[in-house]
């Protein structure tokens, strides 16, 4: 019997070898586009959360600041990765200023809940959510500060707001990173609002983050030349 040509048998094996060695060869155009759109800066670590959804065609126009109500970046990242959490943010900023991205920017993270800016509801669909590691409000018990869990607070000296309440201060490293992150997002999108969760939550008063210790003036000064319509707490007119 004459020997059979080897070409047809070798070709599938050769193709399989190429695909295994270079998986990018079979990536779809949609995957490539998504990858390019969500390429994070080299100072950002990506650790994906399963909690996100479509932006439903909305353009990103807002950045929303939150506090985590906890001190550990690892704990927040772990919770956002937990299938039971049903909550997430695009970024988590640690006390040392390190950044973890958890949701691609072309997807809506689940950070805002029932919310609006002006008359436009559904803030998740058109915003980037940033969680900043911070305990938020503190209270005094038996001469010492405790966080909302009742555990002793051992961080930097609390900030007292005009209404007499105490808050954990944010770190210089966090402010530096947040300004850098805002600059990056402003370059990527037409950002019109940078504000806090407390200002967009429905009903008003449902949330109190990023809290009274958050220094909005750092952003109003640092981003003054970036043509952002509004930076800071919102009023009813806004």
TrEMBL record:
Reactions this protein catalyses: Hydrolyzes the link between N-acetylmuramoyl residues and L-amino acid residues in certain cell-wall glycopeptides
Taxonomy, superkingdom: Bacteria
Name of the top EC class for this enzyme: hydrolase
SMART domains: Ami_2
Residue span, N-acetylmuramoyl-L-alanine amidase domain: 49-211
A GO MF label: N-acetylmuramoyl-L-alanine amidase activity
Protein name: N-acetylmuramoyl-L-alanine amidase
């Amino acid at each position: 019997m004459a020997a059979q040509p080897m070409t047809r048998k070798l070709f599938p094996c050769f193709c399989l070898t190429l695909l295994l060695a270079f998986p990018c060869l079979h990536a779809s155009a949609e995957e490539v586009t998504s990858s390019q759109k969500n390429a994070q800066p080299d100072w950002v670590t990506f650790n994906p959360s399963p909690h996100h959804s479509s932006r439903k065609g909305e353009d990103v126009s807002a950045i929303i600041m939150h506090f985590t109500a906890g001190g550990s970046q690892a704990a927040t990242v772990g919770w956002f990765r937990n299938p039971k959490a049903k909550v997430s943010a695009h970024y988590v900023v640690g006390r040392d200023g390190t950044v973890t991205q958890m949701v691609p920017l072309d997807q809506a993270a689940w950070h805002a809940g029932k919310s609006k800016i002006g008359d436009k509801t559904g803030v998740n669909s058109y915003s980037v959510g940033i969680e900043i590691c911070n305990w938020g409000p503190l209270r005094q018990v038996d001469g010492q500060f405790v966080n909302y869990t009742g555990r002793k607070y051992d961080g930097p000296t609390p900030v007292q707001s005009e209404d007499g309440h105490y808050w954990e201060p944010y770190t210089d490293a966090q402010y530096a990173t947040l300004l850098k992150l805002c600059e990056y997002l402003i370059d990527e999108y037409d950002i019109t609002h940078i504000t806090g969760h407390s200002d967009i939550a429905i009903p008003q008063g449902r949330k109190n983050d990023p809290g009274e210790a958050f220094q909005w003036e750092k952003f109003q000064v640092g981003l003054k030349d970036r043509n952002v319509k509004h930076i800071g707490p919102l009023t009813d007119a806004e």
